[in-house]
Design brief:
It contains 8 helices and 6 strands; from the N terminus they run H-H-E-E-H-E-E-H-H-H-H-H-E-E. It starts with 12 loop residues before the first helix and ends in a 30-residue tail after the last strand. By secondary structure, it is α+β, with helices and mostly antiparallel strands. It is globular and about 50 Å long. Strand 5 and strand 6 form a beta hairpin.
Length: 245
């Protein structure tokens, strides 16, 4: 999922103004249709580099903000998990904020990090509804950025909370929906965003999986370059829930 990009371009000026007005409790619930954090939050285990994902310290040239389409995740995920079980309902969830390098490689696992505190997990669980994914994102990606875990999640959740979405139910019923048409609809919902800053990933059978937004080092949107995402002309399907197709 990790990709690297360059050539900064275009900003979403509304993001900056929204950052200044967002309080953290509002950010935490920004994209959840309904989300109830349990009295005892799950505890993660350490996430460390290995042979397949080694430590790689590189300069940051840009960023990718990754969003997961929650209904599709729950279609294949654990129905008893925090995200998919109980009365919790999510639209797009925050996968993470990924620093990119200047070439084909990206920085990862830049330094050892401690386990996230219960308070940090609790504050971010309605944006990224998995304690272990929160730990992974901070260990793999946040460790390559300056500041604390709370600084990393504050940045990523503010970017995430500022986003707006098209009518996903309507789009899921749209005849002839393609990756490119979806990217255009997503861009229209966000002032200043252009379709060439949006990459769309799908499952093998063409269902919407994730959206990746290309950002420069000041967290302004930019045109995506190099690979990543599906071709704009490919058909796209959107899963809305177990009882509706």
């Amino acid at each position: 999922m990790d990709v690297s990009r360059k050539a900064p371009r275009r900003l979403i000026s509304v993001w900056t103004s929204l950052w200044l007005s967002l309080a953290i409790p509002t950010v935490a619930l920004a994209q959840a249709v309904s989300c109830a954090v349990p009295a005892a939050v799950p505890r993660p285990h350490a996430d460390t580099p290995d042979q397949d994902t080694p430590r790689r310290v590189l300069p940051i040239a840009s960023y990718t903000l990754a969003l997961t389409w929650g209904p599709q995740y729950c279609k294949r995920g654990d129905p008893m998990s925090f995200q998919c079980g109980s009365d919790n309902r999510f639209g797009f969830t925050l996968h993470g904020l990924w620093p990119d390098g200047a070439g084909k490689d990206w920085p990862q696992y830049c330094r050892a990090v401690p386990l996230l505190s219960e308070a940090t997990i609790r504050a971010n669980l309605c944006a990224t509804p998995s304690a272990q994914l929160l730990q992974h994102e901070y260990a793999k990606h946040g460790s390559c950025m300056t500041g604390s875990a709370d600084d990393y999640f504050r940045t990523s959740t503010r970017l995430y909370a500022a986003l707006r979405y098209p009518d996903m139910n309507r789009l899921s019923r749209q005849s002839g929906l393609t990756v490119g048409r979806f990217a255009s609809a997503f861009a229209r919902a966000n002032r200043g965003l252009t379709p060439d800053a949006v990459r769309v990933t799908t499952t093998r059978d063409g269902w919407l999986d994730e959206i990746w937004l290309c950002l420069d080092t000041r967290f302004r949107t930019r045109r995506c370059e190099q690979g990543g995402g599906q071709a704009s002309g490919l058909p796209l399907k959107i899963w809305r829930g177990a009882t509706r197709r």
